[in-house]
Design brief:
Order of helices and strands: HHEEHHHHH
Largest sheet: 2 strands, antiparallel
Number of domains: 1
Distance between the termini: 30 Å
Helix content: 55-70%
Number of helices: 7
Strand content: under 5%
Shape: globular
């Protein structure tokens, strides 16, 4: 399990917690995956799932947090983020703003986080092989132009540490 108080503090800075739709839950998973890969560890382990990196513990904690915020907000432990953590969150917010496109943000983050995850889990693969694996796993959900754009954003972002 992760650090729910720190998760809450991070989500406050990233626009709050919303679990109403699949898109909202996918956004949560991808934001926290990217946040952790950027250096702010909340204690969640991510594996591969249909929409890319996914943490069942994050899902459980997010629903627990939602219930606590709804029914007993005064019982929440307040977490103070370090200056370093605040800096990482600012960079992530800037990154998210640079790729936001309304309803497409969840899909864009899915592609970016999925490509990163595949590169991280398969360090011996060349970029072209990672893209081939991505296409194999995602089918025709993403056009070549979207995949290339996501790879370019991933390379240029500087917020996600790549090993190559």
């Amino acid at each position: 399990m992760g650090d729910i108080a720190k998760l809450s503090a991070c989500l406050d800075r990233l626009g709050g917690l919303n679990l109403s739709t699949l898109k909202d839950r996918k956004l949560l998973q991808k934001k926290i995956y990217i946040l952790q890969e950027s250096g702010l560890n909340l204690g969640y382990h991510f594996g591969w799932y249909i929409y890319g990196p996914y943490s069942p513990d994050l899902t459980r904690d997010a629903f627990d947090l939602s219930m606590q915020l709804t029914h007993a907000p005064k019982t929440m432990r307040k977490e103070t983020l370090t200056l370093s953590e605040q800096s990482i969150l600012r960079k992530l917010s800037t990154f998210l703003s640079s790729i936001s496109g309304g309803n497409e943000l969840a899909d864009r983050l899915e592609a970016i986080a999925s490509l990163h995850f595949l590169m991280k889990e398969n360090p011996s693969l060349k970029e072209s092989e990672v893209i081939s694996k991505f296409k194999q796993l995602k089918g025709n959900r993403f056009r070549d132009k979207e995949i290339q754009g996501s790879m370019k954003k991933l390379r240029k972002s500087g917020i996600i540490r790549l090993k190559r």
